[in-house]
Automatic annotation (TrEMBL):
It comes from Cupriavidus cauae. Keywords: Signal. InterPro entries: BUG (IPR005064), Bug_dom1 (IPR042100). This is Tripartite tricarboxylate transporter substrate binding protein. Belongs to the UPF0065 (bug) family. Pfam families: TctC. Residues 1-27 form the signal peptide. The keyword Signal applies.
Length: 324
C-alpha cells in the first residue's frame, strides 16, 4: 500500500469517526433553530391565549424563539394535518384543543391517524366551559333558557368548531332537555364571540378564559359552568351539574408533536415544558385568565384523548352529534 493510499484510508477513518461522534452531539444541540408552534384556530381563542402565554418562556428555556402560526379550519384538523406531515425533529409542535380527540368522527377525509400520527407530550391546561347568552335573550338561569328554547326551537347556538367542547356541551344539554336547536360552528372562539355579541347566535358554551372579560363587562350573561365545582372567577354562577347531575366537559389544551420524536428531543421538550408551566409568572397569567394548570405526563394525555374519543363515539352513534 502506498503512502498516499494510507493517508486516504486514514482520512476516511477520521471522517467516519467524526460522523459517529457527531450524531449524539447533534441531538444534544437541539434546538439550534426557531421552533414553529401551530395554533389550529383563529387568533383570540383559548388555544391562541395559551400559545402566547407560554411561547416567550418556553423559547427562553429552550434557547430558541417559538414562532406561533395560526392555521384555523375544520375544528383544528387542518393544523393537525400540517403537524402530521412535519418531520419528527422537534421543530414543529402544535397546541391541540379537545376537539382534536374526536375529529376523526366528524371531519371527513382526515389526512392523519389521531392515535398513530402524533406524540402526545402533555395536557397543559383546562378551562371551564361557560354557558353564555346574548343579552337580548330573556333568560337569567338555565331553567329559563330551557323554557325559552323549547318555545323557540329554531334558536341557534355557536361553538368554536364541530366536536369542540362547546359543541359537545350544547349537544349534551339538548339531549338532556330534549331541545331542537341549530348548531353554527366557527373557526375558533373569537369569531364565535363576535357573532354572539352581534346577535347572530343566541347562546353558546365557550372557554371561560375567552368569555370572562365580556361577562365582567356585561356584554354577555353567564348562566352556568361545566366544571366539577364553581369557578373562583364567577363564584355566583352555578355548575351545570347542580342542575343536571354528571354534566361535566371542560376545555383542554395540550402540546403535541409528530410521531417519532428522538428520545433526547422529547426529553428536552418535556423538561422545558414542565419548568415553564411551573414558572410563577406563567402560572399567574394562566390563573388571571381562568386556566387551571395540569401539565400531565404523556401517558395521562394520551389516556385523555382515548377517553374523549370513546365518549364522542357514543354521541355520534346516538346521532346527538353529526358531521358537518
Amino acid at each position: 500500500m502506498t503512502n498516499r493510499s494510507r493517508r486516504l484510508l486514514g482520512a476516511a477513518a477520521l471522517a467516519a469517526a467524526a460522523l459517529f461522534h457527531a450524531a449524539p452531539a447533534w441531538s444534544q444541540a437541539y434546538p439550534s433553530q426557531p421552533i414553529r408552534l401551530i395554533v389550529p384556530f383563529a387568533p383570540g381563542g383559548a388555544v391562541d391565549q395559551t400559545a402566547r402565554t407560554i411561547s416567550g418562556a418556553l423559547g427562553r428555556e429552550l434557547g430558541q424563539p417559538i414562532v406561533i402560526e395560526n392555521k384555523p379550519g375544520a375544528s383544528g384538523s387542518l393544523g393537525a394535518a400540517d403537524l402530521a406531515r412535519a418531520k419528527p425533529d422537534g421543530y414543529t409542535l402544535m397546541l391541540a384543543l379537545d376537539s382534536h380527540a374526536v375529529n376523526h368522527y366528524t371531519v371527513k377525509n382526515l389526512r392523519f391517524d389521531t392515535f398513530k400520527s402524533f406524540d402526545y407530550l402533555s395536557l397543559l391546561v383546562t378551562t371551564p366551559q361557560v354557558l353564555v347568552v346574548n343579552n337580548a335573550l330573556p333568560a337569567n338561569n338555565l331553567d329559563q333558557l330551557v323554557t325559552y328554547l323549547k318555545a323557540n326551537p329554531n334558536t341557534s347556538y355557536g361553538s368554536a368548531g364541530t366536536a369542540s367542547a362547546g359543541h359537545v356541551n350544547s349537544a349534551q344539554l339538548s339531549l338532556a332537555r330534549q331541545l331542537a336547536t341549530t348548531h353554527i360552528p366557527y373557526k375558533g372562539a373569537a369569531p364565535l364571540l363576535t357573532d354572539l355579541l352581534g346577535g347572530h347566535v343566541q347562546y353558546a358554551f365557550a372557554g371561560l378564559s375567552v368569555m370572562l372579560p365580556h361577562i365582567k363587562a356585561g356584554k354577555v350573561r353567564a348562566l352556568a359552568v361545566s366544571s366539577p365545582k364553581r369557578s373562583a372567577m364567577l363564584p355566583d354562577v352555578p355548575t351545570m351539574s347542580e342542575v343536571i347531575p354528571g354534566f361535566e366537559y371542560p376545555t383542554w389544551i395540550g402540546l403535541v408533536a409528530p410521531h417519532g420524536l428522538p428520545p433526547e428531543v422529547r426529553g428536552k421538550l418535556l423538561a422545558a415544558t414542565h419548568k415553564v408551566m411551573h414558572d410563577p409568572e406563567v402560572s399567574k397569567r394562566f390563573a388571571e385568565n381562568a386556566f387551571d394548570i395540569v401539565n400531565s405526563s404523556p401517558e395521562a394525555f394520551a389516556a385523555r384523548v382515548n377517553k374523549d374519543a370513546a365518549a364522542m363515539g357514543d354521541l355520534v352513534r346516538r346521532k346527538v352529534i353529526v358531521a358537518e
